[in-house]
Amino acid sequence: MTAAGDVRIVGLSELSATPVRARLLERHDRFWDTDTRSLHHPVWFHQFGGFGALAMDAGGEDVGYVLGVVTADRLAYLHLLAVRDDHRRSALGRRLCRWFDELAVSTGARVVQAVTRPDNEVALAFHTSLGAGAHLSRNHAGSGADRVVLTRSLLPA
């Protein structure tokens, strides 16, 4: 558990996965402008929960979260990164990414990737501001479902 300011970041492995997932889905629209419920599969909270974290304010409210995993070939995949609407532009997204990056590096990851829709300007701007390169992947999510793969190094520059 790390604390800074009035928001603390807690690894999902320290929490009970089922109620956390239920709370985040219940408050989905405070975190997302599009419907991402299908991306919140229980496996991200149970089996991969050790690579996820929840940001909570001083009152214990959920204000952000990150879900991801590190593969056997040392690729860190950042599956979801969300900041509640009233905590955006507070650097919380960057803090959550830093938490994930540090954990990924500790497990041997050298690269982190995220995937988004080509029209998701906010995600594209955020990840490129962290140094990610963007690559359009045609039919990445099925026929006609292009995605942008954002890749950045976790090695020191």
TrEMBL record:
The N-acetyltransferase domain, residue ranges: 10-155
Entry superkingdom: Bacteria
Keyword Transferase recorded: yes
Keywords of this entry: Transferase
Presence of the UniProt keyword RNA-binding in the record: no
GO MF annotation terms: acyltransferase activity, transferring groups other than amino-acyl groups
Protein name: Acetyltransferase (GNAT) family protein
Organism annotation: Blastococcus aurantiacus
